[in-house]
Amino acid sequence: RVNGERLWQSLMELAEIGGTAKGGVCRLALTDLDKQGRDLVTRWAREAGMTVTIDKIGNGFMRRPGRNNSLPPIMTGSHIDTQPTGGKFDGNYGVLAGIEVVRTLNDHNIETEAPIEVAFWTNEEGSRFVPVMMGSGVFAKAFTLEHAYAAKDTDGKSVKEELERIGYVGPEEPGDHPIGYYFETHIEQGPVLEDNDKTIGVVTGVLGIRWYDCTVTGMEAHAGPTPMALRKDALQVATRVMQEVVACAHRHPPHGRGTVGMVHVHPNSRNVIPGQVKFSIDLRNATDADCEAMDADIRAVADRISKETGLPIKIDLVSSYPAQPFNPECIEAVRRGAETLGYSNMNAVSGAGHDAVYMARLAPAGMIFIPCKDGISHNEIEDAKPEHITAGCNVLLHAMLERAGT
Amino acid sequence: RVNGERLWQSLMELAEIGGTAKGGVCRLALTDLDKQGRDLVTRWAREAGMTVTIDKIGNGFMRRPGRNNSLPPIMTGSHIDTQPTGGKFDGNYGVLAGIEVVRTLNDHNIETEAPIEVAFWTNEEGSRFVPVMMGSGVFAKAFTLEHAYAAKDTDGKSVKEELERIGYVGPEEPGDHPIGYYFETHIEQGPVLEDNDKTIGVVTGVLGIRWYDCTVTGMEAHAGPTPMALRKDALQVATRVMQEVVACAHRHPPHGRGTVGMVHVHPNSRNVIPGQVKFSIDLRNATDADCEAMDADIRAVADRISKETGLPIKIDLVSSYPAQPFNPECIEAVRRGAETLGYSNMNAVSGAGHDAVYMARLAPAGMIFIPCKDGISHNEIEDAKPEHITAGCNVLLHAMLERAGT
Ligand SMILES: NC(=O)NCCC(=O)O
Ligand SMILES: NC(=O)NCCC(=O)O
């Protein structure tokens, strides 16, 4: 069993770097604070006897050798960058749980057959630089190193110059790194485990995600002199589509999700009937077929609303992540870990993208969720219970040991 | 009959001051351009033999004496400031039509019993400084001179300093100025006259206006991991209220108007369920009782939606203009003018506020509408037909002469 207190202690120490008054963490990717975080984590790794390799996109691989070092490593990892109003656990937990696994193996002088590696992936959050899950995405060749290097923050600073500035451009070619199995522990970022009073979520896969921009075009006119019957109010039509985004999710249970998160009204003036409304649509579901069905559904409904109202409705796909089922071997390794350790558990589906999604394209992969308070993350009030932090790490230890062999 | 060509010529000449590439006018209140506009209009007035008085808020009164100068003047007027993307006719037409009336009287050596005055009111548009209809509002003591003086533009410049800078702080105390009758010609700013193919709108009154801010509070959460059933999506609840604003207008025909023009979603991020949505509500109707009924209606519906969804909905009144019926004598004077001249006409209700609304608190008042192209104003493409411009001015001439006596 891992040393939960030591793990908690490390989480709290890392959280001081960029710690906010409200108890959260603001440690954006490739800032000085991110460098301090990386420096601390790699120091801990070296103190635990691990070697550290950095690749060209700044991903870090912290390695504990096995008996047979020609075997591909059993890897775990996550990210240590945070949202601007982030918490102490999102990502950071996955990396430090990996280090705690190694520390525990050291404590008990346990040698593994395959080597163990703990990775931290660059810029998972995507708050400062898009795309999200950048380091793991480059590693999995979802997009090129050049594409990632060219990404700029709002001040015009590029990923390349910021990586160089903080000294985290390594020699290794991203992806030139074999992986035997990949596991990632993470807070759930949703309320399902807490609602079901379970300690461990055995993650069976990650929902497919489709992002759209929707534009409704009407005709702006003065709110006073324009009779109701003669209006082409883009917002009134847009609200119908917005409601249908949620209805569409309900029409595709149990995993369908539909969200309108972003809205821009033009000209956004109190006494002007809106002439144009643009808003985002985020659709998710468990399989690509389900995502496809939701896509067809919302487009059909929008067409009908457009015909009924006479106002054009445009729906443009802006990005798309396929659904990613996890590897059955990994899923069962996680479940066995939870069962062996006597933790209440249930199957869970990740609604959010994670570095593990990209790793699953390269190797058998799985994830371990633990509850977070009220399901809240990407918020300074994000919180998790020490006993859950410990439990998730124990399950990780079991799953990794099972795959690494002792 | 007035000289329509001369009036059109003056309109086009004034429109050159601040004229835009798209054929509109940008002549914001109390700018150098506004000064040039005022200088030109007062020069024309003096050339027509009128005396010019300016009051402390910069309202101008251009006077043609009558036979009996102890009688209160028969007044017309409007404003010469424009929206940032304004047109050539909004306001400007009302002032220049007044000058054309005087020029016509001069042409025919017609003396009137009561004096005739043409007013231009400071900052009707309210684009640069709030409140709107500032000059006429101070004149009618709807708010104080000090309140108006203190208003600042986005650069921090106050009405007082800008009025002084352009040299339009006059000696007269606002409101120290008797008015016998007040008439205002204006483009309709709506599509009703055009739709009904009428030349003249006999304006019977101005709708009451109530402006509200509505806030729906939910709970922000990640769009991915949060199941549909566990969401507190502020936007989804807000869309129901937004639709009810329009439904409420339809429930209060024929003059009920309901508009949501401005929306702010927090945090307005693609993959975050909105935690709070603020939006404006603009309700209008022909009588204060109808406005009151709409107020009660929308509040009751919002309460019901709040109870059904469990999300708090707050509705705050931010400003309110009572409905303003015009004086029956003035209404009939306008109608007789149109009938006598053989212009097609219909009763019209002004959906927008005008300087005449404040004048109606001080004297018998009325308005004359003419059609504008597609009902569009507050837009550089605002347009009106020369024959309608002429017709409205002829009706003004008749109505003013009838009241002034010859
Ligand atoms: N974990 C996370 O926030 N990923 C970003 C993509 C998503 O919205 O799921
Ligand atoms: N004419 C005009 O735009 N007045 C401002 C107040 C309103 O919205 O009616």
Automatic annotation (TrEMBL), chains A, B:
Zn(2+) 2 binds at residues 90, 125, 378. The keyword Ion transport does not apply. InterPro entries: Amidase_Cbmase, Bact_exopeptidase_dim_dom, Peptidase_M20, Peptidase_M20_dimer. Belongs to the peptidase M20 family. The keyword Zinc-finger does not apply. Residues 206-308 form the Peptidase M20 dimerisation domain. SUPFAM superfamilies: Bacterial exopeptidase dimerisation domain, Zn-dependent exopeptidases. Binds 2 Zn(2+) ions per subunit. Keywords: Hydrolase, Metal-binding, Zinc. It comes from Diaphorobacter ruginosibacter. Zn(2+) 1 binds at residues 79, 90, 186. This is Zn-dependent hydrolase. It holds the Pfam family Peptidase_M20. NCBIfam families: hydantase, PRK09290.1-3, PRK09290.1-5, PRK12891.1. Coiled coil: none annotated. One of its GO terms (molecular function) is metal ion binding. Its cofactor is Zn(2+).
